[in-house]
Amino acid sequence: MVTLDRRSGAPTDAISIAFIVDRRYLADQALSGALAWLRAEGCRVELIVPDGNEQLFPVPREAPAWDAVVTRGRALAGFGLLAAAAARGVMPVNSPAAIELVRNKVAMQARLMDHGIPVPRTWFAAHAGVFERLSPEYFPLVVKPFDGDGARGLALLTGPADVRLLPRPRGRRGLYLAQEWLETDGWDLKLYGIGSRMWAVRKPSPVDLSRAGPARVSPVEGATIVSLDAELRDIGLTCGRACGLELWGVDVARTPGGPVVIEVNDFPTYSAIPEAGSAIARHTMTLARMHRAAREAGSGRLHVFSRPNA
After folding, report:
1. Are 138 and 262 part of one and the same domain?
2. Are 194 and 246 in contact (CB under 8 A)?
3. pLDDT surpassing 70 at residue 3
C-alpha cells in the first residue's frame, strides 16, 4: 500500500483515520481542511491515493490499524480498500453499501421514492434503440450513464431521431438512465450534509442542454450559500438518512412545481462552505471515538450512528 502522508510523533493511543482519495480530489478545500484539523487535534492521519500509480494491494489478513476510514473518489481500488477495511471491522464513515446505493442510480431513485422524496420520472434501458421506439410524449428526455460521474455522458433527446446523437455508455455497466426534462431557472441548487448539519448552495449550472445531443459542460464561478428553509432541510436530511450516508450532497432542481431531487452523491465538494473541512473532521473524529469505545467495551460498532438503509 502506498502512503503519501502519515503523522509521526502522535500518541500511540491517538485516534487513527485513513483517507482514501483519488488524485484528482487532493486539492479539494474541504478535504485539505479536514486533514489539517485532524492533525492539529493530534490524530494519526493516513492519506492513500489508490490511483496514484501502479500498485498491488493486498487483501488485509487483519484489520488495519485505523479507527475510521473515509473515501473521496471513484477509483475501484479505493473502493476495494474501503470494503476490505470495513469487512475487517474498521468503521467506514460512508459505508460501502451506502456508496454502492447512490452510485446505482436506479436503486437510488427507488429508495428516494420510497421515502417520499420528489424525483423526476425515470426510466432505464440496456439499448439506445429503445428510445427510438418511444412515442413523442416521452420527450424531451435527459439521458445519462447508469454509473456516470458528474456530467460525463449526459445528453438531451428532444425526439426519437436524436438517439443517433447519444454517446455510448462507458464504465463498468453499460446502461442508460433517462429522466424527464425539468424546467428550471438555469441555476443549480446543492444541498450538503455532514451528520445532522445541512447547508444550501446556489451556483450557475455548468451544463448546457439547450440543444439536442451531448451536454456542453464548462467551468462556472459564483457559488454562494443561500438560506435553508424547513422544506429543503427536511429533503436533504431525508435523502442522507434514506441512503445511509454521513457525508453527502443532493442535487436539486427548483421547478415551478417545487423542488425535485435529481440525485444524491457521497462525499461531495462542499463548494462555498468555509467550515466544511472542520465539520467533516469533527464528525469523523466523533464517530471514530464512539466506535473505539464500543469496540473496547465489546459491543461492536455503535449502530446508533449508522444511517438506516431501509
Report:
1. yes
2. yes
3. no
